[in-house]
What does this fold into?
Amino acid sequence: MYNSEEEFLKYYDSSQFEKLSMTADILLLSVSSIEQSNYRKNSKKMMSVLLVKRDDYPYKDKWCLPGGFLNPSSETLEDCAKRVLKKETNLSDIYLEQLYTYDGLDRDPRMRVVSTAFVALVDRNKLTEKTLDNVSWFDITMYEEGSDVVDICLDNGQEIINISISKKLRDKTTDRYQFVPLKNEKLAFDHALVVLAGLERIRNKLNYTDIVFNMMPEYFTLGELQQVYEVILNKKLLDPAFRRIIADKVEKTKKMRTGEGHRPSALFRYRKK
It folds into this structure.
């Protein structure tokens, strides 16, 4: 028996426990505009995710989320996420929040690796850093077949990644789901599950937080904001219902959007609490 905390720590033998590695993976999401051929139409909004092409094994030449191993002696998980995001994409000073911890026994063929995934949101128009050459934005299109299967298409204009995931309710009292990949050929590790979990997290948080404004410019029209809501929710919103949702979240400015073949539109900004 030990007589003090100091004595316990002096003789404590940590070798009796198995070692594992920790990583941080970052799901970086943005909403961007696709210009329409008809200049009188508003630009179409698309949700997009930033992916990194792997240049080494395992999963060489496949795409993955930015991520890396935790330095256990000097980093918190959030510190790790910020460091690897900068290292792998050259982006920094971006909003982050923890999403979920992934601890599947076979999620990494090299060793036992537990990963904490983070969601990062950004307005791409605000980015000042240039991303690295092996990094690309992929537009996201979701097709939900009832409540059981979700198909996700990721497209960067040169390459398409198709993902299909089974979605089953695991706990009705907490509305928790079990995700099982059905099709995934080009996305490494279990990152297809992270993509879907992150999209659903952001969708749910629209109802009770102001998280969406991390993806908006300082000034915007209500039409632009509504498009972002609709892209995230993957459904069309009625104008009156949308106006009620954002009534207390925005404030009208004296600025106007003119030109581009449209009637002048009032610009709004986020009303900080």
